[in-house]
Amino acid sequence: MRIRKSLVPNRFLHVAAVAGALMTLALPAQAEDWRGWNIHPPGYPNSVALETFAKEVTEKTEGRVSPRVYNNGVLGAQPDAIMQVRSGALDFANFNMGPMGPIVPATNVLSLPFIFNSVDHMYKVMDGEIGQRFAEELEKKNLIALSWFGSGARSFYNTKHPIETPEDMQGLKFRVMNNDIYVDMTDVLGGNATPMAYGEVYQSLKTGVLDGAENNYPSYESSGHYEVAKYYSLTEHLIIPECVCIAKSSWEELSDKDQKIVRQAAIDAAEMQRKLWADRVEASRDIVLEAGVKINEVDDKKAFQNSMKPVYEEFIAENPDLESLINDIQKAK
Ligand code: GTR
Hints:
Elements: H1 10-26, E1 32-37, H2 45-60, E2 65-70, H3 78-87, E3 92-96, H4 119-127, H5 129-140, E4 143-149, E5 154-158, E6 173-176, H6 180-188, E7 192-195, H7 201-206, E8 212-215, H8 217-222, H9 225-228, E9 231-238, E10 242-247, H10 248-252, H11 256-290, E11 294-297, H12 301-307, H13 309-318, H14 323-331
Parallel strand pairs: 1-2, 1-3, 6-7, 9-11
Antiparallel strand pairs: 3-10, 4-10, 5-8, 5-9
Helix pairs in contact: 2-11
Bound molecules: beta-D-galactopyranuronic acid.
């Protein structure tokens, strides 16, 4: 209950203030209940790793910090959730670097198609000095990136036919994540791109608002998109890292000791996520095949890679300061 100052004599207020201060000293520091955003369902590698992160943090801080993961994107779509973690309305999240581009321009480099030639190349870059540079850029926007998850390679899928060459994309409408680079990428291949929230894609594929989308095997499977879009073509055009990100305001409230605990838990979670990922790719592939999905290898991947020249040229023309970062990543094989 708030005390209305005008009704209480001054000396009582003084006594109350001193008593309050003494009570604060006597009580242990307030436990922090952290709320975390996760787009994936329970059981998904990222979800399991985040749950483990939450448990490790709770145990090792002896409850001083007690994170709770909200799965299935129930706290909002990814671009909104990024804003919420930036403002401290949410405390942590696992974010894909795709929708991060509009906020942290340097991370757009990670959305350039075929920038990484393998998942190992991506891990090598993100675990080293270059990954640190991205973390510094994220911090400028109030996001503390503590470790990097993988998300395999993304490929196009659709309701109509296999995609063997860029010509097969002609006239098809694909959902992409919220980033102009993906619109350009799809355009130069001859398709039409529609940025849309992940949670809306299933229905849009089902009703024919969309002809296709693009994602890795585990998301294609766990989202149920495979039930409605039966042609999965292994273009593997994007390999995008994801962060375990903490709100800067929540991070700064922690003691040095607790920061160390949280950082280590995020690193452990990434190690676990990467291990679980490989098994999940196999399992998801089996599930979609079983359901009658037609998977096709793309024999001439070079045709897709070569089409990306104008995307790179335009990007560098608009972001000349990021050209050296692109070069550093490509060199770090
Ligand atoms: C998944 C990724 C999510 C989300 C989703 C999407 O692979 O892990 O964070 O970005 O794709 O396509 O929106």
